[in-house]
Amino acid sequence: MNIFRLAGDVSHVVAILILFLKIWRSRSCAGISGKSQVLFAVVFTSRYLDLFTVYISAYNTIMKVVFLSLSYATVYLIFMRFRSTSTSEHDTFRLEFLLIPVVGLSFLENYAFTPLEILWTFSIFLEAVAIMPQLFMITNTGEAESITTHYLFFLGLYRALYLANWVWRYHTEGFFDQIAVVSGVVQTFFYCDFFYLYITRVLRGSAKMGLPMPV
Prior knowledge:
The chain is mainly α.
């Protein structure tokens, strides 16, 4: 494992913890897209179906358990524990626009036409677009709390570090995973505007990050 992969995993865990603790401490899930969190839970579930059948390392197993546990705990807080505080009226992104193309691509582009391999590919493609309901929600409301933008920043940083990890592995091991790399590039692209706004507004002390309202 190289430093980019490790830093990426740490950033990913930090992002999820920031969101979970934000909801728990504020006793509110306002401004959080429940749809995005459900998609992320589906991503981890379909990717880690081999949790009890394939052992790679203790680190790998622990990370799988952490991601699954935190994602489902977050979904529970949003849809059960603090459901009355949700702003679902703004969480209006139509998931079929993501799921239908992702399912189709998973059957067309995979490394082996087996159930686990198709589901792994599905998880990679879905992860690339799972954040879109959250970004769409922020655009609808025109602003986001700084703690929510910290979550998005670390999530985007995780993808950027994984791109560096893939470049490193290609040069040192000759390893290239076309599906993961292309999906990672697409996902990182979604964060480009957000990174700029985060650096120019949130890091300068603004309590909320304003965004242009949709026309």
